[in-house]
Amino acid sequence: MSKHRISIVFSVFNELGQNLLKDSLDHLSDLSGIEVIIVDGGSTDGTIDLVKKYPVKLIQTEKSSRAERLNVGIDKAENDLILLHHPRSIIEPSGLEYLQRNYKSIKWGGFSHRFIEDLPLLKFTSWYSNEVRGKIRSIIYLDHCIFFKKSLLSGCPVVPELFIFEDTALSEKLNKLCPAQIIPFVSRTSAIRFNKNGFFRQSLLNLVMKVCFLLNVSDEFMNKVYEKGLGLNTRY
After folding, report:
1. How far apart are CA 44 and CA 16, in angstroms?
2. Ramachandran region of residue 179, left (φ > 0), alpha (ψ -120 to 50) or beta?
3. Which secondary structure element, helix H or strand E, spans residue 177, and what is its range?
4. Tens-digit pLDDT profile for residues 160-196
5. Which domain holds residue 14?
6. Predicted TM-score (pTM) of this structure
7. Residue 34 lies in a domain
8. Which residues contact 215 (CB under 8 A, 6 or more apart)?
9. Is residue 68 classed as helix, strand or coil in its secondary structure?
10. For position 83, which CATH number holds?
11. How far from 229 is each of 89, 177, 197, 224, CA to CA, in Å?
12. Based on C-alpha coordinates, what's the Rg of the chain?
């Protein structure tokens, strides 16, 4: 039996510029009862050198999508309770302690979303993510830092291997079992896409992507459009 209670899986790709991965690993390195797995998709910016400074399990792969890398980490995880940690989010350590204390009753869900940048429109976006998409529709995005028990799911892959909206597809899969739980602990996330593209342009792009997803447009094509000029998750 593993001494760990939670396996935390990161899918990373050239994260050094944001500096949030370092902050997350600093916080996590002080905690007990967790296993941290970093799956790198070919970083060339020093991300791997950073990760090697911490007591984590580093896996290097040529998998090009975030979903594929998450599945690699899930497969190597020692524990049933998995937390998919967004590389540009920072979670409250007390939230992990909550998951450990309530281990038996936890099924799946996410942390409460909040942007690091304190702007009214971003606050509204987080409110919608938590109260409408999260609590009413039970769709949890990766920047909430999704947690779930592997034993709830059968077959592979655990995370549907899409280039984009894999978190939506995972939520739909888990929703067949039970609704999501949004725990009262915060995942603070970088608003880099809004900062780069502007709030209204990024919001419009998000809406267009959701419509395309409903229309079954190619996930790889959607991801190329979504990542254009940013390349945050995938190399194009």
Report:
1. 10
2. beta
3. none
4. 999 999 999 999 999 999 999 999 999 999 999 999 9
5. 6-196
6. 0.94
7. yes
8. none
9. helix
10. 3.90.550.10
11. 21, 38, 9, 10
12. 17
Q: Is residue 46 included in any domain, yes or no?
A: yes
Which sign does the torsion angle of CA 205, 209, 215, 216 carry?
positive
Q: Does residue 89 lie within any of the structural domains? A: yes
Query: How far apart, in whole angstroms, are the C-alpha atoms of residue 83 and residue 117?
Result: 24
- What tokens appear for 62 in the block? 């040529």
Confidence band for 19, pLDDT divided at 50, 70 and 90: confident
> What are the CA-CA distances from residue 64 to residues 2, 127, 156, 167, 177 (Å)?
30, 32, 18, 16, 29
Encoded amino acid at 36, one letter: V
Please tell me the total count of domains within the chain: 1
Look up residue 29 and give its DSSP letter. Answer: T
Question: Residue with structure tokens 């608003």?
Answer: 191
Yes or no: say if 234 and 64 are a contact pair by the CB < 8 Å rule.
Answer: yes
Peptide bond into 55 cis (omega under 30): no
pLDDT digits (tens, 9 = 90+) for 36-76: 999 999 999 999 999 999 999 999 999 889 999 999 999 99
The candidate with the shortest Cα–Cα distance to 113, out of 189, 169, 171, is 189
**Does 211 map to a domain?**
no
Report DSSP state, residue 7: E
